[in-house]
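Take the subject:
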Amino acid sequence: MSFPKKEKLTNKKLFEALFTEGKSLQEFPIKLIYLPTHFDDGTEVRVAVVAPKKRFKTAVDRNRIKRLLREAYRLNKPLIFNNIEGNFAFIFLYLGKKTPTFNEVDTAMKKLLHAFINKESDEKID
């Protein structure tokens, strides 16, 4: 699976809405903030990744973390597309204090996506 440009979250209003209205799940060292929404171009999910400047001073470290988050999402994306209905906007925030390995990020990403799918399927039933 790829991670095309149309799946990247770039809308500033939606980005702000995610932080104010979005629901969140956490699996250390990643936090997922999500919001059900609608996209006109038929995209199901849009994603943004964030590494905090406060904790990682150099751009090299922040970019590496964001690259790891994007890659972990890209590899585990079929979990979401095969198990949810509706459109969502996601932000993946990195919370750790040190630069992670890919395995740490990948494991947390899988747990987080499973938790999201379980939570969404539970809300659909209620």
Notes: Strands lie at 23-27, 30-37, 45-50, 87-94. Residues 13 and 46 are 14 Å apart (CA to CA).
